[in-house]
């Protein structure tokens, strides 16, 4: 009888010890990730050499080499653009932001450059390097229209949010607060500031870099949630890249739609017979005699006006954009 008692006691102690051990390992791993986030702050607290403002083609070449090294294994870049709008029209894109998963961010001042070096264009055109953000497809269209720069591999984070069943409102700001616990600075006087000034202010640099840095952080968080369950505490921090591609391939260069039409899949994407995403070359072929951009069927603006608190007119926009800005 006593032998059975001690066996049961040892068994119980073993289970408790194993559970506590796993709990300690999990805590240390999560605490380590928290410390990394706290130190880098996703670019929100510290800058130094982590955020680089690029004003020339030569500087752009150096940054391109750096970005290629940083995304050699985890081929994802946070992507965003800024421009100046007057009361009647959008000016050409002034700033392009690209950020890697380790907290590095490059702010490319297109308004001060005559052309991008080929090495940088190759990064943008490489569909196997994902450019993640909110409405990145629209930013890519602006770059094509303004500078004839082709961007492939765009992935709207809202596709992954919908897939994971995570609800969020307010665009990237809402995602950051919901998933990362970060409150982004969306001050209107910075968002609508002059991005073509000779020298960007510290506040402009922070505002511009935070969107790209947070975008890649949200992507990393979402794929870990999908591909790396919480009990895999002893595995690598990042899932295998082949698994990431398999998860995301149906959303690459596919524009996100809030309310898909009845009878059509919300995740529809152009594919070939094997189910793989069409090649980058086929995706951008324009037939002879066709137009690169079709004629608009609806007016560009709905007579909605964005005004500063002092009454100054900042820009005109459609009602959806106005509703998004007030979220």
UniProtKB/TrEMBL annotation:
<keyword id="KW-1133">Transmembrane helix</keyword>
<dbReference type="GO" id="GO:0031966">
    <property type="term" value="C:mitochondrial membrane"/>
</dbReference>
<keyword id="KW-0812">Transmembrane</keyword>
<keyword id="KW-0496">Mitochondrion</keyword>
<keyword id="KW-0378">Hydrolase</keyword>
<keyword id="KW-0269">Exonuclease</keyword>
<protein>
    <recommendedName>
        <fullName>Exonuclease 3'-5' domain-containing protein 2</fullName>
    </recommendedName>
</protein>
<dbReference type="InterPro" id="IPR051132">
    <property type="entry name" value="3-5_Exonuclease_domain"/>
</dbReference>
<dbReference type="GO" id="GO:0003676">
    <property type="term" value="F:nucleic acid binding"/>
</dbReference>
<dbReference type="Pfam" id="PF01612">
    <property type="entry name" value="DNA_pol_A_exo1"/>
</dbReference>
<feature type="transmembrane region" description="Helical">
    <location>
        <begin position="12"/>
        <end position="28"/>
    </location>
</feature>
<dbReference type="GO" id="GO:0005634">
    <property type="term" value="C:nucleus"/>
</dbReference>
<dbReference type="InterPro" id="IPR036397">
    <property type="entry name" value="RNaseH_sf"/>
</dbReference>
<keyword id="KW-0479">Metal-binding</keyword>
<feature type="domain" description="3'-5' exonuclease">
    <location>
        <begin position="51"/>
        <end position="228"/>
    </location>
</feature>
<dbReference type="GO" id="GO:0000175">
    <property type="term" value="F:3'-5'-RNA exonuclease activity"/>
</dbReference>
<dbReference type="InterPro" id="IPR002562">
    <property type="entry name" value="3'-5'_exonuclease_dom"/>
</dbReference>
<dbReference type="GO" id="GO:0006310">
    <property type="term" value="P:DNA recombination"/>
</dbReference>
<dbReference type="InterPro" id="IPR012337">
    <property type="entry name" value="RNaseH-like_sf"/>
</dbReference>
<dbReference type="GO" id="GO:0046872">
    <property type="term" value="F:metal ion binding"/>
</dbReference>
<keyword id="KW-0540">Nuclease</keyword>
<keyword id="KW-0472">Membrane</keyword>
<comment type="similarity">
    <text>Belongs to the EXD2 family.</text>
</comment>
<feature type="region of interest" description="Disordered">
    <location>
        <begin position="259"/>
        <end position="278"/>
    </location>
</feature>
């Amino acid at each position: 009888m006593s032998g059975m008692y001690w066996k049961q006691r040892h068994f119980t102690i073993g289970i408790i010890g194993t559970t506590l051990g796993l709990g300690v390992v999990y805590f240390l791993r999560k605490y380590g990730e928290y410390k990394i986030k706290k130190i880098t702050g996703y670019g929100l607290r510290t800058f130094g050499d982590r955020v680089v403002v690029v004003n020339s083609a030569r500087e752009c070449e150096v940054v391109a080499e750096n970005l290629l090294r940083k995304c050699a294994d985890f081929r994802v870049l946070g992507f965003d653009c800024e421009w100046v709008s007057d009361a009647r029209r959008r000016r050409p894109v002034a700033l392009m932001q690209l950020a890697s998963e380790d907290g590095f961010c490059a702010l490319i001042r297109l308004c001060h450059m005559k052309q991008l070096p080929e090495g940088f264009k190759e990064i943008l055109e490489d569909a196997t390097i994902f450019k993640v953000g909110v409405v990145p497809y629209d930013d890519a269209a602006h770059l094509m229209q303004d500078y004839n720069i082709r961007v492939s591999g765009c992935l709207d984070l809202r596709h992954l949010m919908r897939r994971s069943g995570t609800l969020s409102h307010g665009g990237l700001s809402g995602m950051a607060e919901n998933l990362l616990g970060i409150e982004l600075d969306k001050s209107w006087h910075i968002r609508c500031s002059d991005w073509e000034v000779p020298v960007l202010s510290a506040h402009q640099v922070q505002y511009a870099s935070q969107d790209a840095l947070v975008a890649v952080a949200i992507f990393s968080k979402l794929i870990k949630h999908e591909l790396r369950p919480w009990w895999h505490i002893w595995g690598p921090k990042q899932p295998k890249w082949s698994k990431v591609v398999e998860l995301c391939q149906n959303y690459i260069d596919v524009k996100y739609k809030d309310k898909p039409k009845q009878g059509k899949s919300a995740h529809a994407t152009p594919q070939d017979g094997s189910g793989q995403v069409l090649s980058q070359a086929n995706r951008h072929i324009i037939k002879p005699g066709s137009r690169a951009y079709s004629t608009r069927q609806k007016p560009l603006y709905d007579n909605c006006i964005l005004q500063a608190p002092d009454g100054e007119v900042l820009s005109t926009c459609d009602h959806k954009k106005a509703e998004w800005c007030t979220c």
